[in-house]
Specification:
about 270 residues, mainly alpha, globular
Length: about 270
Amino acid sequence: MHAQRVAAIVLRQFYLIRGSPARVLPLFAWVTIDMVLWGFITKYLNAVTLSGFNFVPLLLGAVLLWDFFIRVMQGVTMAFFEDVWSRNFLNLFATPLSIAEYLSGLVLSSIATSAVALAVMLVVATAAFGLSFFVYGLMLVPFLLVLFLFGIALGIVGSAVVLRLGPAAEWFIWPIPALISPFAVVFYPLSTLPRWMQYVARLLPPSYVFESMRAVIAGGAVSGRGLAVGGGLDVLCILLACWFFTRIYWHAVRTGLIARYSAESLS
């Protein structure tokens, strides 16, 4: 793997973002809206409940972590979509660029864009709604890491699906976070789900993060084993995602799909 080729992919994304305000605004606009909306919801819940329970670290913290996961996933897919929309994908792989170098460039691009979104969310949640991250302590780091790795895995899978089915298939990718959110137990305990949904939830790394987050807020002990399982599932998901993308890529090369790539390519 050549670092210069990986850096070239990242540099391309940097130039695209730098030269377009329309690409800069989504880096922080939607996460700001989410923080403001859920911030006021938590303030309202604090005002109308008599228990004295503080909903800010529970709900607003969950929204922040979930939005971070979404931005990581979209950081990968959006970088890939830029090459799709510009019909640049074939040009890239006419060079000595390898699949590993290309995916590494997408991941590094996602790190940069998701870091911007995370910083904005932290500032808004802390300054406007008093969300103290001392509540989570050092556990915030493994929480973010598990969500980051899972976001990378789903981003690679989403890119592979679009590569196989064509640019129109991007509409299959946007709803993925919403589809898995009921199983990720973002806002409620795992025990709330029916038995069959609990089995599915245990296969998703985010469920271990949000269960641990609620344990921290409740003053209990975090299950290190649970987070370790979540991290192990992340590694497995990334390996499977890379294998899946590689298989789809070579299928596109063998069938000539990569040369016919257009908005109407569905086979």
